[in-house]
Amino acid sequence: MPTAAPRPCSHPGCHVLVRDGTGRCEKHPRPVWTKPKKAATKRITGRRLQRMREELFRQNPLCVRCQELGLVALATQRDHIVSLEEGGEDNPANTQGLCDEHHEEKSLAERLRGRTRGR
Ligand SMILES: [Zn+2]
Ligand SMILES: [Zn+2]
Predict the structure, then answer these.
(1) Number of Cβ within a 10 Å radius of residue 39
(2) What is the largest CA-CA distance in the chain?
């Protein structure tokens, strides 16, 4: 049986008493960056990346998000649909072309998700 004294969960605003000594209740496990579950996929670089970029932009010259919105903008960024940090593969099936604006927007959303993960 656990011997640690019950302590409130250290998640802000959560007062569930935790008895297993982790300092976190079931709903609020420790943030993943202290205990990564899966290493981020290695990013392809160099000449191979250059070829994959050219291939992607040849097949999808336009920003996919803009197309969804009925707009037309040239894709300038090779984007990972599921980011490598979130376990996405660095292969053509997981890449899409985005304009600068949509790429920035998506990266921002991914950074925010990374920060709030575990809530
Ligand atoms: Zn909690
Ligand atoms: Zn766009």
Answers:
(1) 9
(2) 62
pLDDT digits (tens, 9 = 90+) for 63-88: 999 999 999 999 999 999 999 988 99
Which DSSP state fits 13?
Answer: T
> Can you give the pTM of this predicted structure?
0.62
Domain boundaries, the chain: 1-30, 46-116
Q: Sort 45 into a burial class: Cβ within 10 Å, 0-12 / 13-18 / 19+.
A: exposed
Find the 26 Cα to ligand 1 centroid distance in Å: 7
Kindly give the pairing relationship between strand 17-18 and strand 77-80: unpaired
Give the Å distance between the CA of 99 and the centre of ligand 2.
Answer: 4
Cα separation of 87 and 18, whole Å?
Answer: 30
